[in-house]
Each structure stands twice: as structure tokens, then as C-alpha cells.
Fold this protein.
Amino acid sequence: SSSVGGNVIGVGVDQELITSVPSYNPTFVSRNFTDTEITYCRAQPSPASSFAARWAGKEAVFKSLGVQSSGAAAPLKDIEILNNTDGVPCVHLHGEAKQKAEERGVAKVLISLSHSESQMSVTGLSLSR
Amino acid sequence: SSSVGGNVIGVGVDQELITSVPSYNPTFVSRNFTDTEITYCRAQPSPASSFAARWAGKEAVFKSLGVQSSGAAAPLKDIEILNNTDGVPCVHLHGEAKQKAEERGVAKVLISLSHSESQMSVTGLSLSR
Amino acid sequence: SSSVGGNVIGVGVDQELITSVPSYNPTFVSRNFTDTEITYCRAQPSPASSFAARWAGKEAVFKSLGVQSSGAAAPLKDIEILNNTDGVPCVHLHGEAKQKAEERGVAKVLISLSHSESQMSVTGLSLSR
């Protein structure tokens, strides 16, 4: 099946040490991850790595949207990263993140996650139609 | 001369420690690299770094194509990375990788390689026309 | 406000250890950074990190333009990276870099910067109209 692409509006990169993402903290987790993300990450061989990958992914997507960060109040739970049936991570925007994306003409966000033993590295791309 | 670009269909990132790519293993090398790649890498000041950069590049391109990994059976030899006359790394797809790319409407794959002392970091982009 | 995007012509990635960028060297700094960049970096909490981020950014942009490196003579001062009012880093090309970009049909260059404690990581994208 062929895929839908688009013009690039923004790019975002982020890298995070796995140990720097406090996925052992239930408040941090419930504040920043959706129920589906939490269920997925907890079922993986290394939940800490999976949470860190998604955390880096959310930051990269946020940067690719080109909006000013509101710091600790940034709605990172509104940026949901779920694997499709081919195992490819896909971005789903909700709430305020979705609204910001629409205001900027973003129709789709692509992402790729990579990890070494200690570090996650992610690139996100915001596309218009 | 002007260049041909395209809409982005997929992005792929990969990072690899140079020490984690077994380029000292002839079976690994002949299984995953083309003769032209092998000749090129062996002629570089640090063959291990050159093999590792290409290995990370193949993984990044594979991810950018958005196809399900077939694990150890993935046809990474079909993803060939050669420098053009300007020294810019270019992606050439063959066999199964080429077929998958065509099925998804990918007309061109861009790539950039970077390395620190110990690590290779790569981003690939799959473009449609 | 909606944004202007474009077709991707080139991608460039770069990673630099903060300690490997000699921002303590006035000759290096004045040779490679514009006055506006220097004023900005010196006003940041960690000037060394800010210089390193821009240095990596210049290298990534240079790679994304797909031109042959002229090594130490590369006009990296011609690649200026300044934050816009939203805090998003934006690329401004001057002189030889601007000319090379125009020859290749590059209308805009997007960039994203990321840093860990010790390392900067950047991706740049050259876009046509």
C-alpha cells in the first residue's frame, strides 16, 4: 500500500538518557503518558527504555510543531506515540497539541526512535498536506 | 545544478557504537555489505568506523521505509550507501528493499551520517515524487 | 499562523561533544560566529553549550546543502542560527552559503538542536519551494 507524505513544516530532535526519565514516578507517568502508552510500555522487556523513548519522542514532536514551550505545563500527554501493526511508531495528537498543529497547518507528524544502551535519540517531522 | 526533492513519506534514525558493529567478522561483512561498499570502507583511515556508519545508515533507511523488520533476515545488503563525487552519501536500493520502496511510493532516499569518537548517528528520509 | 513548508532536497545530521568545540578561543569564535550569535551565546547560562549547539547546527546545515566541504575554509560564519521570538532556532544564510543554496534550489533550511549533558545533536533539512 502506498503512503501519504507531505511538505515538511518543522523538524524536531531530542536525546534523553534512559536514567534521566523518571518512569518510576507514578505522578510523572500519569501526567505525561496515555493509558494506552502506559499499558504498552509496562508490557515491554525494558519498561524504563520504552517510557524514555516515548518521552524523547514527545519532546521531538513538540519541537517539530514549532510552538513556544510552556515548560512544565507543556501538554505532552496530548502527544501520543503508538506502534502500528508493522511495529512503526505513529504520532497521535490530542487536545491542545492537536489544536496548535492545526493552526500551523500540520496534517501529519512522522517520527523515528533509536536507542543505544544508555540513550534515546528521536527525530520528528511535521508535515503539511 | 539544482536538485530533485520530494514529499517526505518516512523518517528513520539510528545510532550505533562503533564497537558494536562486528566489521572484523567476514561473514557479517559479506552478508550485509556490497562489494563496492567493502572496497570503499577498507580503503578508509578507519575501516571499522566506515562500516559502522554504513551499518547505522542501512538501519536508518530501513526504518524510513516503514516496513516491518524481518529481524536477522532483513535484506540490509539491498540497501547500499555510496558517496557521490561531492563526498555526499547516497542510497541505492536493490532487490527486496527496492521492491518494498516502490510498493510504498518511495522515489528517493536521503541520508546523513555523523560520528563522534565512539558513536555513529544517522538520519534517513524516504521521499515520494 | 500557518507555516510555509517545502519539498526536502537534503538532510544533514551532526553531533559534537561540548568539550570538543573550542569556544574559549577568540579566533575560532570570531571566524565562525556572527556578532549576533556571539552576543546571544555569551548571554546564555552555559555559553560553551550554546556555542557548541550552533557549531553542530552549522555543520548539519552545511551537510544538508549537499555541497562538497572545503574543510577549514568552509564558510560556517555564513550559516547563522538565531532563535525566533518563539525560541525556535532559525537558519539565515549569507555570502557563499546563500549562493550555494540558491544554486541548488534551496528556499529554506529547517533545523532542530538537542543536547545531553555532554553532547549536542542536530538535524537540518534543506527545502525547495
About this structure: The mean pLDDT of chain C is 90.
